[in-house]
């Protein structure tokens, strides 16, 4: 008779994360609040975007924030990343709206009442319309306008905030507004892109100093969109050089401009793995469109490549600063894919920590389905599903409770948080055809 097969060494053990690890989700004001009528994006949407892609009421988190925070709590989160909307706080140049400031005080107070560690973003893509009319980030005075807003808002809310993100993804903001030019202000110009990027770096530096002056013991950084790069053709020297160049410009340039000493931690938003190819048609390399290859991609055509987050983390470790994954998530209407995504990316983060990286938190993008910027509401990133039709109907009838539904992946995440890591049982979900309901029966029925 055959003897029993040998048991794997770590059976029943979990992949445990460091003590005090922050587990949460992230959102941005414009993408979930709704009604941000004083923002440049709102104005742009009215003229450029088809009606179904305009933010409108979005997920109406402006009114439903308590419900969302209670949900996050019930799903085990201990931290939350969100942003405040500059255009609400300063709707006209130099006029600060106390009603909106009080609103954000209430929002942040609620998070603290529920014991969340709070990471707050001061600028997440959108600007006040008045600021955009003055030339937005191209205006050399832009850092001063930003600093005036920072000086006003920080003393009002500092007691409720643990981590500050001055600016979300400066590089993507420039790419979207000036290089691909598919977002406001849609000005395709390398020179304007450079000016705006420089001004963003100066705005960060000023904000860093101001925040530390007002609240010395706090931690300040940015959320940087970092991409992994690879050559498309193995052994191509030209592609290798291009890979190095893109890594420096995309992943490190902002730290060089600001000086790394204006970052108390490194915020990593990881979504993209890129292949660089010289296809012979131009003198310059291009990025391969992965949706035309056999790679596994999200509903937005972005490659699912968990190994990339390991590479990025190890690369950043040379700065010797604490690292927080400030965003990572999947656009998919198929939640089984989100479960696999979550487990695979967290496994890589775990391995990076084992290899010596100082990663201290993970914020999944996103808590609830959100407006995916210019792409509208079709891409679904939420751990919690928004039923937009019932949301609109319930807003009209004042019955504002039926529109949010945690997806199975949110229970998987809850289980991970409960164990401060990935319990071995959950790894079964990486097998095909195994349903979350089978592994987490009780949790889901709760
Ligand atoms: C941004 C989010 C966006 C997410 C998914 C990040 O680059 O910070 O605002 O929704 O990616 O595209």
Automatic annotation (TrEMBL):
Signal peptide limits: none
UniProt keyword list: Glycosidase, Hydrolase
Classification via PROSITE patterns: GLYCOSYL_HYDROL_F1_1 (PS00572), GLYCOSYL_HYDROL_F1_2 (PS00653)
GO-annotated molecular function: beta-glucosidase activity
GO process terms (BP): carbohydrate metabolic process
Active-site annotation: 327 (nucleophile)
One Pfam family here: Glyco_hydro_1
PANTHER family documented for this protein: GALACTOLIPID GALACTOSYLTRANSFERASE SFR2, CHLOROPLASTIC, GLYCOSYL HYDROLASE
Membership in a protein family: Belongs to the glycosyl hydrolase 1 family.
Identification of the protein by name: Beta-glucosidase
Organism classification: Bacteria, Candidatus Daviesiibacteriota
């Amino acid at each position: 008779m055959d003897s029993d097969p040998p048991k794997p060494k770590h059976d029943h053990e979990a992949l445990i994360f460091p003590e005090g690890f922050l587990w949460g989700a992230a959102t941005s004001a414009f993408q979930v609040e709704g009604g941000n009528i004083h923002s440049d994006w709102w104005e742009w949407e009215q003229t450029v975007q088809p009606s179904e892609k305009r933010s409108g009421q979005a997920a109406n988190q402006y009114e439903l924030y308590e419900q969302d925070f209670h949900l996050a709590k019930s799903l085990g989160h201990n931290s939350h990343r969100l942003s405040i909307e500059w255009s609400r706080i300063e709707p006209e140049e130099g006029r600060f709206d106390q009603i909106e400031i009080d609103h954000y005080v209430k929002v942040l107070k609620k998070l603290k009442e529920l014991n969340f560690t709070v990471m707050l973003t001061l600028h997440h893509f959108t600007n006040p319309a008045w600021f955009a009319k003055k030339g937005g980030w191209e205006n050399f005075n832009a850092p001063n306008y930003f600093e005036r807003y920072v000086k006003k808002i920080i003393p009002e809310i500092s007691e409720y905030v643990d981590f500050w993100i001055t600016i979300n993804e400066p590089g993507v903001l420039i790419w979207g507004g000036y290089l691909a030019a598919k977002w406001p202000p849609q000005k395709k110009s390398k020179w304007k892109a450079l000016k705006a990027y420089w001004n963003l770096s100066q705005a960060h530096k000023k904000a860093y100093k101001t925040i530390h002056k007002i609240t010395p013991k706090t931690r300040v950084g940015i959320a940087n969109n970092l991409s992994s790069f690879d050559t498309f053709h193995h052994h191509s020297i030209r592609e290798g050089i291009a890979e190095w160049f893109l890594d420096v410009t995309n992943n490190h340039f902002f730290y060089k401009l600001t000086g790394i000493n204006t970052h108390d931690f490194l915020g990593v938003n990881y979504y993209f793995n890129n292949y660089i190819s010289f296809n012979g048609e131009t003198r310059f390399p291009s990025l391969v469109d992965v949706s035309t290859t056999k790679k596994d991609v999200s509903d937005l055509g972005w490659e699912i490549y968990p190994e990339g987050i390991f590479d990025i983390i190890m690369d950043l470790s040379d700065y010797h600063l604490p690292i927080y994954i400030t965003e990572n998530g999947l656009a998919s209407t198929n939640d089984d894919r989100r479960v696999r995504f979550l487990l695979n990316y967290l496994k890589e983060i775990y391995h990076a920590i084992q290899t010596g990286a100082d990663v201290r938190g993970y914020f999944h993008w996103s808590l609830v389905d959100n407006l995916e910027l210019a792409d509208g509401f079709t891409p679904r990133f939420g751990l919690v599903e928004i039923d937009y039709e019932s949301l609109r109907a319930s807003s009209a009838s004042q019955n504002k409770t039926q529109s949010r539904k945690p997806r199975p992946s949110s229970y998987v995440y809850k289980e991970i948080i409960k164990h401060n890591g990935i319990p071995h049982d959950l790894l079964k979900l990486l097998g095909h055809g195994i349903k979350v309901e089978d592994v987490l029966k009780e949790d889901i029925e709760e």
